[in-house]
Amino acid sequence: PYPPGEHGRGRKQSSDYKVRLLEKQRLRAQYDISERQMARAYDRARKVEGKTGEALIIELERRLDALVLRSGIARTIYQARQMVVHGHIAVNDRKVDKPSFRVRPGDVVMVRERSREKHPFQVAREGGYAPDGEIPRYLEVNLQALAFRLDRDPNRKEIPVICDEQLVVEYYAR
To answer: Are 37 and 170 contacting, i.e. CB atoms less than 8 angstroms apart?
Structure first.
């Protein structure tokens, strides 16, 4: 409502609360999860020994939709989520259609036989969705087979998420 320029109204200073809220919203958007799922993940992370912030990001990164994205089978988190919901993904040879499914180290995730000929998976097989950087070290990916394995829990440094997790923890700790 106010014009820019020298005589426009000055900007309000960001409150501490606003800074933390925006950081939490940014993290939520990167995983496309609801506030409730985020709060639950925080509660689980709080019970882990060590840094709550790192535990939170690792907790979110072990979601099935996030790993489908990181492996290069999907191009966006939304596409990854839809692939899971539409029943194209199997974990240890069993269909899983919950994007929030927590993958455990050693689990093998693959595209189901019946879905492999569909166009998005053809593109993925040719590496069309592969992330710009390299595939994270905690995943062992075989795009030809449209499958990957979670070798171990990820480290915070390996997770390509832009977030100051300390601010998120401070938001929930209030």
So the answer is: no
